[in-house]
Amino acid sequence: MLALRCRRRDLAAWDELVASWNDRLHYFLHRLIDHEHDVANVLQEVWLNAFRNIGGLQQGARLAPWLYTIARRSAMNHYRGAYARRAIDADAPAPNANLEPIEPTDDAFHLENAELVHFGLGRLEVPQRELLTLYFLDDLSIAEIATVLEIPPGTVKSRLSAARRELRRILDEEASRHE
Fold first, then answer.
1. Are 161 and 139 in contact (CB under 8 A)?
2. Cα 57 to chain centroid, rounded
3. Sorting pLDDT into bands at 50, 70 and 90, what band is 4?
4. Other CB atoms closer than 10 Å to residue 158's CB: what's the count?
């Protein structure tokens, strides 16, 4: 219903949409982009693109994959621009060069420990981080993730399995360093 109201350009509906989705999209983008200033700029682009293209959203139930697809494409456009600028200025650091993972505490390490999971996510490659964020933290289904990433559901499953193994390896390695 909210998506339909937004399609009709109901500004109160847009306020509601932004209020309910802004933090989730910000978190998702923060997992993909290393600098907060860049995350804020890309998030603005996401909302502008959503406002411009809401007419193309046919089913309101597909709002989550639609928003995450816009966010992902905006993040990828950000990186394309960063790589283009880097080609011009070869001395510039690569994107994600300054990405610092959240440091774990000395507490017991468990997968349920949110801080540790965020630490592990910070150590993963961007595609794995993106996949796990969508699946575990944003609760998207395999089919919805396939839509967002524009890949078949079977590929999502196999990549998700590999990303989970890699996260487990990182967490186990970190736990063994603190024993």
1. no
2. 20
3. confident
4. 12
Per-residue model confidence as pLDDT tens digits over 138-162: 778 899 899 888 899 999 999 999 9
DSSP 106-159: SSPP-TT-HHHHHHHHHHS-HHHHHHHIIIIIS---HHHHHHHHTS-HHHHHHH
Alpha-carbon gap, residue 26 to 49, rounded angstroms: 15
Q: Mention every residue, 6+ apart, whose C-beta is less than 8 A from residue 1.
A: 60
**Cα–Cα distance between 89 and 137 in angstroms, integer?**
36
Three-state DSSP class for residue 23: helix
Nearest to 160 by CA among 123, 124, 114: 124
Measured CA distances, 22 to 47, 106, 155, 176 (Å): 9, 32, 28, 37
d(CA 169, CA 125): 13
CA 130/CA 135 separation, integer angstroms:
9
Positive/negative CA dihedral, 9, 12, 15, 18: negative
This model's pTM is above 0.70: no
Which of the 8 DSSP states describes residue 93? P
Q: For the residues of 27-92, what is the DSSP string, one character each?
A: HHHHHH-S-HHHHHHHHHHHHHHHHHHGGG---GGGHHHHHHHHHHHHHHHHHHHHHHHHHH-TTS
